Amino acid sequence: MPPASDDSSAPDVGELTPPTRTLMGPGPSDVHPRVLRAMSTPLVGHLDPSFIEIMNDVQELLRYAFQTDNQWTIPVSGTGSASMEAAIGNVVEPGDTMLVPTNGYFGGRMASMARRAGGEVVEVDAPWGEPLDPATVSDALAEHDPDVFGFVHAETSTGVRQPNVPELTAAAHDHDALVITDTVTSLGGVELRVDEWDIDVAYSGPQKCLSCPPGASPLTLSDEAMEKVLSREEPSRSWYLDLSLLEGYWGDERAYHHTAPITNVYSIREALRLVAEEGIENRWARHRRLAGALKAGAEGMGLEMNPDDEYWLPSLNAVRVPEGIDDGEVCDELLERYDLEIAGGLGDLAGEIFRIGCMGYSASPENVTLLIAALADVLDDFGADVDPDGGVAACREALR
Ligand SMILES: Cc1ncc(COP(=O)(O)O)c(C=O)c1O
């Protein structure tokens, strides 16, 4: 051990001891121990031959998770927003029109990014808490003739799963628009078939249904989308996220662009290996079963889900806050009493819903049972009109 410093100006900061939480909010989810172990693997250089192999593995595993053969499938260095901005900032050129939805927070973020890319934004409306209606999308496509259509497959702010994806992509392609899909809260947890559904570009994040820390974020582009990116008249406004430059690192050449976040690449490799071991369809089924038990427990205690069953999103359960209850106080109490994280609503649904994640490693019978018992306990103590035993019994029955 080197001698302790006698520099009195050096900050005296204690050891890192965050609390042990159970993460059942909108993300991050609990990280699988195997992924945590992979993160403590010693570094190699970002151009080391062994790392090139690791990059190939990640690309192959990502194609499986996305259900695509797209050659252009990479983990973008950064959080989900980096992957989102890589998608929008490269595909949308100055002067292009992008059609975006108004039915949630992340559609709004798509609009901001498209504007910064120099695009003109037009909107297709649906209320928060509802999916897009294919007929309304078709009308908007006919009216605005956009170059790009973006939508959110799993809207984390509302707990809505967009159904009818093939109908939406077919309508967009009838109008020669490329489709960008936000799959941050669906990849690895909710049925998603990039090729079969004819999605041109899909971006995601690792910290939701992949149960991996944020830092390397999945992105896939079809050849046609990549052709548009590579034939842009002016380069993308971001140097760091310019896919024509990143091609040098993730394509055949494997030349330096930036120092890849090695540890995050290790972690996503392990997280994706877990997806492949379980099988993607089994994984979707597990999320449906465990989130189904969570939903049964919530409904069994007398709570109401916000979205219709038809577009329920297993990875993010939007449960209506009962009459007279403050959502923030419930979230605080769950954290304090049970070390359990859930979240309240955002935007148009602020104060109206709890957002309860059931993602990846967090989608387990133990977590779902704890969540229902703890939520019932806290709501009952706060005087909500709930049946705590009914909730626990319904959850238990659904888990049998
Ligand atoms: C649907 C959706 N899109 C995009 C993002 C942005 O991802 P990040 O927060 O990792 O940058 C999130 C994050 O919660 C999200 O839920």
Automatic annotation (TrEMBL):
Pfam annotation, one family: Aminotran_5
Required cofactor names: pyridoxal 5'-phosphate
Domain Aminotransferase class V: 44-297
Record-annotated membrane-spanning stretches: none
GO biological process terms held by the UniProt record: glycine biosynthetic process, by transamination of glyoxylate
Coiled coil: none
Spans annotated as Disordered: 1-28
GO MF annotation terms: alanine-glyoxylate transaminase activity; L-serine-pyruvate transaminase activity
Protein keywords: Aminotransferase, Pyridoxal phosphate, Transferase
Family: Belongs to the class-V pyridoxal-phosphate-dependent aminotransferase family.
PANTHER family recorded: ALANINE--GLYOXYLATE AMINOTRANSFERASE, AMINOTRANSFERASE CLASS V
Protein name: Alanine--glyoxylate aminotransferase family protein
Organism (species): Natronosalvus rutilus
